[in-house]
Amino acid sequence: MKPYVYITRKLPEETLAELKKIAKVEMWQEEDKPVPRQILMEKAKKAAGLLTMLSDKVDEELLLQARQLKVVANLAVGFDNIDVDAASKCGVTVCNTPDVLTDTTADLAFALLMAAGRRITEAAEYVKDGKWNSWSPLLLAGTDIHHKTLGIVGMGRIGEAVAKRAAGFEMDVLYHNRRRKPEAEEKHGRLFYRTFEELLKESDYIVCLTPLTPDTKGLFNEKAFKMMKDTALFINVSRGGVVDETALDKALKQGWIRGAGLDVFREEPIPSDHPLLRHANLTALPHIGSASIETRLMMARLAVTNIAHVLQGLKAPAAVNADE
Ligand code: GLV
Ligand code: GLV
């Protein structure tokens, strides 16, 4: 009998071929509604593989009941929704989708940076709302991007791809990372390592790309926002949990920083009456960092390959706990 694989969201049929050859595949059929927890628990009990979204919680409770489970493939580079330690203990391989989304996510990070700096969404709404009455010298004037200082917190592959884009704008790039990366400094030129505090104090744009871990939870708190320049723009494209949103709300209200661009939130979807959304100088996006059609198809194919490889006893191309 073929092993059973459950996919927690509807994916294009064309991405599933590799898996369908070796497994019985079932998919949650709603495109814009997540699978309810109870259904996921039931499916997981008989599944050898799960293909999950970043919004599905794969915790110890689920893993302990999933006795047949060999692999969980997340359709994301981040995997903070999965208890990797518990998975390792249960002998479950956890996989993600790195690399294929690097440039696409860096594009979005830069788009959000530019939108925040030049007030793009605010200006676009202004026109559509019929508020544009006359041209005027400082109407919706933002701040420059070129020749400014960009600070990248979390210098992984996406961080390096953002630094590459910044070079075209002749920005100086500071970065903070757990590990200093001399090879990246050499490759990119105008790229300088800083402590977290130095980076906050010196940057005009701060882009957060660090994964959510117990160490980074709430990293951007009151103290951090107070250290930033009052002209700084804060961009987050990693995970909402890295930011203390109450502190950010205060920072925007009291003018500790100039503005923010967020693709991610503590609670997703963010409720429309959330205090953060009241700030005109906050650009909010619905977690679309890697959302180009090309990249989402590649991510789906990679997740499928990850599962197919594990179920066939092969090394998955992107396992995060492979050597445990
Ligand atoms: C998206 O946030 C991802 O982790 O891929
Ligand atoms: C994170 O994993 C990255 O690719 O930056």
Automatic annotation (TrEMBL):
EC number: 1.1.1.-
GO MF annotations, alphabetized: oxidoreductase activity
D-isomer specific 2-hydroxyacid dehydrogenase catalytic domain boundaries: 5-321
InterPro entries (alphabetical): D-isomer_2-hydroxyacid_DH, D-isomer_2_OHA_DH_cat_dom, D-isomer_DH_CS, D-isomer_DH_CS1, D-isomer_DH_NAD-bd, NAD(P)-bd_dom_sf
SUPFAM superfamilies for the chain: Formate/glycerate dehydrogenase catalytic domain-like, NAD(P)-binding Rossmann-fold domains
Domain D-isomer specific 2-hydroxyacid dehydrogenase NAD-binding, chain residue ranges per copy: 110-289
Keyword annotations of the record: Oxidoreductase
Top-level taxon of the source organism: Bacteria
Residue ranges of coiled coil: none
Cross-referenced Pfam families: 2-Hacid_dh (PF00389), 2-Hacid_dh_C (PF02826)
Top-level enzyme category: oxidoreductase
Family stated for the protein in its record: Belongs to the D-isomer specific 2-hydroxyacid dehydrogenase family.
Name assigned to this protein: D-glycerate dehydrogenase
Organism: Fictibacillus terranigra
Taxonomic lineage from the root: Bacteria, Bacillati, Bacillota, Bacilli, Bacillales
